[in-house]
Specification:
Radius of gyration: 22 Å
Strand order of the largest sheet: 1-5-2-4-3
Oligomer: single chain
Number of helices: 10
Shape: globular
Largest sheet: 5 strands, mixed
Order of helices and strands: HHHEEHHEEHHHHHE
Helix content: 40-55%
Number of strands: 5
Length: about 260
């Protein structure tokens, strides 16, 4: 995940035609193929077409390659100088995988922190005027994920903003989220999820990616019960797990806060 998604000058230049052909031959096999249909379609017609289109494919096997994820032994702090009037700050921790059942808990935790009614906006921006912009960030992947936050603030406020951000993370580990705050986050995520699945294409995408990434094919279609199953205790337990890890903090701006 630390690599450039599109590669770099050296890696792209090293790709040969035979490399592309070899890779395509490896992945374009029946065992590695997933097809999803959703909406109003002729089932018999499509099954016949799929069988006809794939009959000359070899059986092959599922292509799956995972990478070891090193554990940080100490916090990492990185500063890059930029002669601008605003500093951009990011702090992150190892998160969860795309198949971890606690990812629903993490989404609830993100929702509690996010938005204009979320804790980060209210405490860092609204009450203390520490940030132009502040928001939690989250990603789940096959081997690991990340959880953290972004802050855009005045250079002289970076240290204070980081301190208050840490306070908000610590608060999740030391105090249970209130029932109203929890219910608001649950309802928001369920509502947004239902809106996202209003089109047949969205339903097909949900099934496809769950199937490819190792979840049950119907995992993303009915999530209300999963969100409502999240308790304040589960949020606190997960927060302790995540925020007890070593962090990575990066600052881009005119002032090095650790100098």
């Amino acid at each position: 995940y630390a690599r450039e998604m599109l590669g770099d000058v050296e890696s792209v230049a090293a790709i040969k035609i035979q490399d592309i052909k070899r890779h395509w031959a490896q992945i374009s096999q029946r065992q590695n193929l997933t097809i999803v249909l959703s909406g109003n379609f002729n089932r018999v017609k499509w099954i016949k077409w799929i069988e006809e289109s794939t009959k000359n494919m070899g059986p092959g096997k599922i292509v799956s390659k995972k990478f070891d994820v090193p554990t940080l032994s100490s916090p990492i702090q990185s500063f890059i100088e930029s002669k601008k009037e605003q500093s951009h700050v990011m702090i992150g921790y190892h998160g969860l995988t795309i198949t971890d059942p606690e990812r629903y808990t993490l989404q609830i935790m993100q929702s509690i922190l996010a938005g204009q009614g979320g804790r980060l906006f209210l405490e860092l921006r609204d009450k203390n005027s520490l940030a132009y912009s502040v928001s939690p960030m989250r990603m789940e992947g096959l081997e690991t994920g990340y959880f953290g936050a972004y802050i855009g603030c005045s250079p002289e406020k970076v240290q204070k903003a980081l301190s208050m951000l840490s306070e908000q993370f610590t608060l999740l580990t030391s105090e249970l989220v209130g029932p109203e705050e929890l219910l608001r986050a649950q309802r928001y995520l369920i509502g947004r999820h239902d809106i996202d699945l209003q089109s047949a294409g969205s339903v097909a995408s949900s099934i496809l990616y769950d199937e490819i990434y190792g979840n049950d094919a119907n995992e993303g279609l009915a999530v209300a019960e999963k969100y409502f199953a999240v308790t304040a205790g589960r949020i606190q337990k997960l927060a302790k797990k995540i925020f007890s890890q070593k962090s990575v903090t990066t600052v881009v701006g005119p002032i090095n806060p650790w100098a």
